[in-house]
What we know:
Blueprint: E1 3-7, E2 16-20, H1 33-43, E3 50-55, E4 58-64, H2 71-91, E5 96-101, H3 107-119, E6 139-143, H4 149-170, H5 178-192, E7 195-199, H6 201-206, H7 210-216, E8 224-230, E9 241-245, E10 247-251, H8 272-286, E11 293-302, E12 313-316, E13 322-325, H9 332-342, E14 350-355, H10 359-365, E15 370-374, H11 378-390, E16 395-397, E17 415-416, H12 424-433, E18 440-444, E19 450-451, E20 461-462, H13 467-476
Helix pairs in contact: 2-3, 3-4, 4-8, 5-8, 7-9, 8-13, 9-12, 11-13
Amino acid sequence: xxxxxxxxxxxxxxxxxxxxxxxxxxxxxxxxxxxxxxxxxxxxxxxxxxxxxxxxxxxxxxxxxxxxxxxxxxxxxxxxxxxxxxxxxxxxxxxxxxxxxxxxxxxxxxxxxxxxxxxxxxxxxxxxxxxxxxxxxxxxxxxxxxxxxxxxxxxxxxxxxxxxxxxxxxxxxxxxxxxxxxxxxxxxxxxxxxxxxxxxxxxxxxxxxxxxxxxxxxxxxxxxxxxxxxxxxxxxxxxxxxxxxxxxxxxxxxxxxxxxxxxxxxxxxxxxxxxxxxxxxxxxxxxxxxxxxxxxxxxxxxxxxxxxxxxxxxxxxxxxxxxxxxxxxxxxxxxxxxxxxxxxxxxxxxxxxxxxxxxxxxxxxxxxxxxxxxxxxxxxxxxxxxxxxxxxxxxxxxxxxxxxxxxxxxxxxxxxxxxxxxxxxxxxxxxxxxxxxxxxxxxxxxxxxxxxxxxxxxxxxxxxxxxxxxxxxxxxx
Length: 477
């Protein structure tokens, strides 16, 4: 794991990332005059905003910023440039790099460190000769007189939690089934200091969680329902924030088998929502944020075996309502519905669910952000949307009009589990809202949760989307 540290002075001959609005060869940089002159001349060239070079074995990268630009897009620009610095440091087999900021925006130093640390992530757990392939970068040092140690500590915690989420998402189902996912939450609870209770199939059956049991009926592995709670003594909120994550550890589509080529290859990632809420809990508790938070994860795989639920089945949910199941590949909403009903016992201030729920969400906005919708209070929604911009896990808000409820009506049950060919991301959210009686917001991360090609500091594979968003949101409260 890459470690970020804070110093108030720059050591000589360090590998450098210099963030500046106007480059100057300060004494602390200790750059030779001829090198300084070369850098200055290169940066004067038209449209030159970055410059990277290797000077006698010392890697130096400079990025020019305009301090008048909007801060959040500027932070993302710095994260991405910092990711390229990580690649360069690793290619040179170096272990350390220093961030030196000549601008007045200390947030850019934090963004640079975050981009570097996240770009350094690797998933090599099952590569037998992995030692030869491991990245060499170990230490990132931020030089600053204005950044507080608590900011660095929190940054280390959040990057670690994001990488933990990536690990969970990248593990295949033969390594990480529903029980093993629950075990991972237990381990994180012990490490960070939050309570974890895991309900087995017998307890799930006793609670009559019909949605979770129906999806699990085709599997040889039993389902789990994980209940995580972090309640500090000095909690600012009287009623908890509840996070709900979809934990489908593998999705074949069930009897409605996924029809498109290669569509099952990535379905180990269908528990990315569960990873997000579990690892967000880890970060929130480890950072000792003074907010009472509960996280709920219904978990199972979705397979066409045994007594798998079939299109046309009527499923009685935990709340007693009935669902005409017309597509077993719309299984995520079935297990989330029971969790959202379970959340009522906490009388939550706000409940947010996060899930790789619909292809419609990915088709609508691609991998560039999260589809969001719900009836949360305007102030709650504003804070959540602001956090999305802060960490560049942006939320594209979709309409939540009552008209969409009409598409979910069934002739023979209380509602269907699909709403037809149009507005699929919204009808999924509408289905879930039926199981709530509290301020509610739905996040669909089907687009950005898992990437088939490298994307800067997000890497390739599981991205850990949602962890940084939730941490920033809870911190804002």
